[in-house]
Amino acid sequence: MKNKLFEPQVLIQKEAWEIERLSELKEDWDIRRVRMKPGRLDVHISFFNTLRMQFSSVNYNNAILLQGSAPKGTVMLSIIQSKGQVSFQNEPLKPSELIVTKYGEEIDYLAGSANQILTFAIENTFFSKLFFDYFGTSFEVLREEYRLVIDLQYTKSFIHYVQKWLNYFSNEKKFFIAEIYHRIEEEILYTLFSLLQITPKYLRKEKFNMKKVRQVMQNNIDTIYTISDLVKELHISPRTLQHNFKYTLGVTPKQYFHQLRLHAIREELMVAEVGKRQISDIILKYGFFRPSHFGAVYKKAFGETPSQTLKR
Fold first, then answer.
1. Smallest Cα–Cα separation from 189: which of 119, 127, 132, 133?
2. Are 31 and 37 in contact (CB under 8 A)?
3. 235-241 — which CB contacts under 8 Å span 24+ positions?
4. Where are the alpha helices (DSSP H) in the chain?
5. Which of 87, 132, 259, 307 has its CA 20 to 30 A from that of 76?
6. Tens of pLDDT along 253-280?
7. DSSP-assigned beta bridge partners for residue 65
8. Do 196 and 38 touch, CB atoms closer than 8 A?
9. CA atoms of 193 and 191, how far apart (whole Å)
10. pLDDT at 2
């Protein structure tokens, strides 16, 4: 086992960040972020690294879609706090449900309103050993049939507990002693384990294939393709589509598809060379025919005009 997965450090960031800048802070992560509703998006982040663990608390003041994977060699534990609907891999989450994914498994969750995401990325072997020691069974066996949930009455206290360690690392940055870090890592994980409730999974029979619907949308993001085309292709009713999106993802199909396209355009503008590509050509590819109207929509979504993004 590696004796150091992360470089110990602390960052406490109070101000708002653009979502594109988060990758600068957490460069080991391969995460794509898409805001799901128009309006200002402020991102506040705090995190600390120990030798085998990285903790982060990220607050978004708007709906957000996150897709990607955790750092190599890690297990990711996440808790999403939101007053709106939250889904993971196309399934609605219970309040304070612990999401656990390993490196190479898909991260795909969507919060339909303002939210806070608490995440631990933990060295895989270290996590597996402590999990088995505490529960007497392997995580792989347990997660096949059970969900892990933190009782709501303990969630806030656990957040305060983690904040205590964030403050500790902030004040004691010079003491990078492996033995101390190992004891702290074990204490944090055992405390988390002690708060978990293990409940059986109740898998509902679902004829509606949300994963397939989203994939079809992604495949047609840069074509003249509408929601009407989608329901015809998949032989579903508009009402069924609308209901399942609102129930599972907390947004409408139109909102979801619209925001995917806006972010795809933004990504193209950020890498396009000024003078070599016309903004009108890029937006036309994604089904926007009126540049002046699109400019207003884009500025409302990102706080700047398409030409300002292009000049970056």
1. 127
2. no
3. 236/208, 240/208, 241/213
4. 22-25, 124-135, 139-142, 152-171, 178-195, 210-219, 227-234, 238-248, 253-271, 279-285, 291-302, 306-310
5. 259
6. 999 999 999 999 998 998 887 766 788 8
7. 34, 110
8. no
9. 5
10. 44
Closest CA to 8 of 44, 45, 55: 55
Q: Write down the pTM of the prediction.
A: 0.79
**Cα separation values, 197 from 82, 91, 118, Å:** 20, 19, 18
Angle at 210 (CA atoms; ends 121, 256), nearest 5 degrees: 80
CB 75 within 8 A of CB 129: no
> Which one, of 59, 60, 61, 78, lies nearest residue 69 by Cα?
78
User: Per residue in 187-222, pLDDT tens?
Assistant: 989 998 998 888 887 655 557 889 999 999 999 998
Map out the domains of the chain with their CATH numbers.
9-200 (2.60.120.10), 210-310 (1.10.10.60)
User: Residue 5 corresponds to which tokens in the numbers above?
Assistant: 């997965």
65 has pLDDT over 90:
yes
Res. 8 pLDDT band, cuts 50 70 90: low
